Write a sequence for this structure.
């Protein structure tokens, strides 16, 4: 009986935590029209204002993200059908999103569309688009509003990507895509969401430990707004990152110990 009580308390706590995240972090807002100013690895500037009048596909990815390979495979299949009607951009999350790493990534994967590193600090598109896990794909209509938001279901394939993202692209191109709501979040809030996702959705690829490590490194060098974090702030963020990493690694261990081998097992072998 005592064990059942703790199980019930655990479930109730999880529900309360999710409700708090929804109301404090993910509560619906106005239709999303995020601004951005990216520079791809060829030096071409890609801005939200400059791309008005064109349908845009934004893929959030990482050179280290194994599931993102599946998305890239799907894109490469249908890119020739959309390249003259849609601007494809892969926004690469740190670490390993420096020019040399991204150029090697493009060559190794044979990617023909734009590849750009994420914007730094509080300008990060990962924060503006509320992206706690990779891969993630958004479609923006000609007015710059988000009309498509795709994240991978369990067991997704390149065919899943082509079907789902293709439908969002077709709707945006036809002018019938409905603008959706999106709430930008802060780094601490993103930490909460990523930690919850890493527990409830093992198929998602949590990005926060990598991003936080990059963020702390830049801040320690004085690169984040020119200031070095106080010892207390740095320690607090370090503990948060450590806790998130612990949750993620626990999920990985559980997933890879299952008799059924998944892409996650192959990725961490």
């Amino acid at each position: 009986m005592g064990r059942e009580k703790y199980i019930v308390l655990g479930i109730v706590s999880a529900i309360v935590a999710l409700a708090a995240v929804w109301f404090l972090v993910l509560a619906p807002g106005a239709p999303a029209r995020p601004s951005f100013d990216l520079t791809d690895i060829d030096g071409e500037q890609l801005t939200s204002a400059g791309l008005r009048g064109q349908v845009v596909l934004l893929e959030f990815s990482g050179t280290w993200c194994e599931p993102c390979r599946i998305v890239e495979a799907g894109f490469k299949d249908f890119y020739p059908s959309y390249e003259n009607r849609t601007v494809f951009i892969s926004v690469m999350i740190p670490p390993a999103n420096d020019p040399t790493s991204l150029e090697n990534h493009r060559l190794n994967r044979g990617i023909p569309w734009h590849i750009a590193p994420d914007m730094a600090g509080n300008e990060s598109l990962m924060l503006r688009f509320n992206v706690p896990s990779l891969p993630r794909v958004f479609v923006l209509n000609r007015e710059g509003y988000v009309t498509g938001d795709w994240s991978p279901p369990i067991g997704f394939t390149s065919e899943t990507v082509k079907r789902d993202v293709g439908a969002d692209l077709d709707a945006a191109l036809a002018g019938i895509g409905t603008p959706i709501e999106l709430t930008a979040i802060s780094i601490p809030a993103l930490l909460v969401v990523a930690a919850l996702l890493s527990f409830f959705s093992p198929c998602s690829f949590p990005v926060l430990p990598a991003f936080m490590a990059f963020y702390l490194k830049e801040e320690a060098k004085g690169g984040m707004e020119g200031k070095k974090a106080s010892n207390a702030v740095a320690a607090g963020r370090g503990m948060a990152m450590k806790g998130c990493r612990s949750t993620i690694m626990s999920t990985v261990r559980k997933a890879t110990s299952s008799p059924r081998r998944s892409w996650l097992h192959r990725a961490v072998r």
Residues 187-268 form one domain.
